[in-house]
Write a structure and sequence with these properties.
24% helix; 2 domains; alpha+beta; single chain; paralog of FGE (formylglycine-generating enzyme); 329 residues
């Protein structure tokens, strides 16, 4: 146990820690920058923050259950007020209804479908936030006003939206919340992945998240299970309609409806995979179709697999395609 003299050492760190950490994250910087700048905090892990969430503080931090390590001294959780302050700060920094998806590497390997081949390694080099649920009609209405969905309901996923509608929503919601919009240029053709606003996931980010982001088993057939009925609304159980988000089981990250309910628009233009190993791929530079992933209420089980790929004309509003938000961290 550490002597009480350490309390005085922590007093300057406690003051303003929540606002400073939140600002760093808003600017897209890891909270580890805070630790390095102050020279005080070396390691943080508590039962209140999962290892996945704790990746907010940076990959150079070590993880040991239930302790804070400061200059090599171990403190049991709650031994100093700073422990609770840091926990609260990290928790508050995660946007509402979003999950931290850690960085990591996986193998893209699908079926004999030509669009799922060849198998290759993909690395996501930076953690990011992803919406726990597909964007709901209540969220859409609050920003856009006009709702063209086929099935109406505040908790139902938004559908009948084009790719352009989705990125316009991202920019408008970002501005409404005081964040920097990600999309610019003619037809939203430029994405600033360093901006802190809302955006669509890249196809690679989407699949990494659907597979659990390295948390638990990586290669389930569907997002979170080999049993499609546990995790997805699809042709075999949907009765031809969408359902309120979050009613099936989540995957290991806590993301719901990554398989089924509605397809989810991604940033990428549709194109064939490369067989080369890739880091943070963003798809072809141009194309005729944008990529949606995840399958929908109207699709056979094979199309709600985590590896399955779709393609859609970006200015067409499909009644089985919606979207999910991410933010860069």
């Amino acid at each position: 146990m550490v002597a009480g003299s350490l309390h005085a050492k922590f007093d300057p760190v406690i003051h303003g820690i929540q606002s400073e950490l939140a600002l760093l994250l808003t600017e897209g910087k890891p909270a580890a920058d805070y630790a390095r700048a102050h020279g005080e905090i070396a390691v943080l892990i508590t039962p209140d923050i999962t290892k996945t969430d704790a990746l907010l503080v940076g990959t150079d931090w070590a993880f040991t259950g239930g302790v804070i390590c400061i200059d090599g001294a171990l403190l049991t959780r709650g031994a100093v007020p700073a422990a609770q302050a840091i926990i609260a700060a990290l928790t508050a920094a995660i946007p509402k209804e979003m999950i931290v998806v850690p960085a990591g590497t996986f193998m893209r390997k699908g079926t004999t479908d030509v669009y799922e081949q060849p198998a290759h390694q993909v690395t996501i080099s930076k953690a990011f936030f992803m919406g726990k649920y597909e964007v709901t009609q209540a969220e859409w209405n609050a920003v856009m006003g006009t709702n063209l969905s086929c099935w109406k309901g505040d908790t139902l996923p938004m559908e009948t939206v084009s790719w352009y509608d989705a990125v316009e929503y991202c920019n408008k919601r970002s501005m409404a919340e005081g964040l920097t919009p990600c999309y610019s240029g003619a037809d939203f053709s430029v994405c600033d992945f360093s901006a802190n606003g809302y955006r669509l996931p890249t196809e690679a980010e989407w699949e990494w998240a659907a597979r659990g982001g390295g948390k638990g088993r990586l290669y389930y057939e569907y997002s979170g299970s080999d049993n499609v009925d546990e995790v997805a609304w699809y042709d075999g159980n949907s009765r031809g309609k969408t359902y309120s988000v979050g009613h099936k089981l989540p995957n290991s990250l806590g993301l719901y409806d990554m398989s089924g309910n509605v397809w989810e628009w991604c940033w990428d233009w549709f194109g064939s995979y490369s067989g080369d190993n890739q880091t943070d791929p963003t798809g072809p530079a141009s194309g005729a179709y944008r990529v949606p992933r995840g399958g929908s209420w109207g699709d056979l089980a094979e199309y709600v697999r985590s590896a399955s790929r779709g393609h859609g004309i970006p200015d067409v509003r499909y009644y089985n395609i919606g979207f999910r938000l991410v933010r860069s961290l």
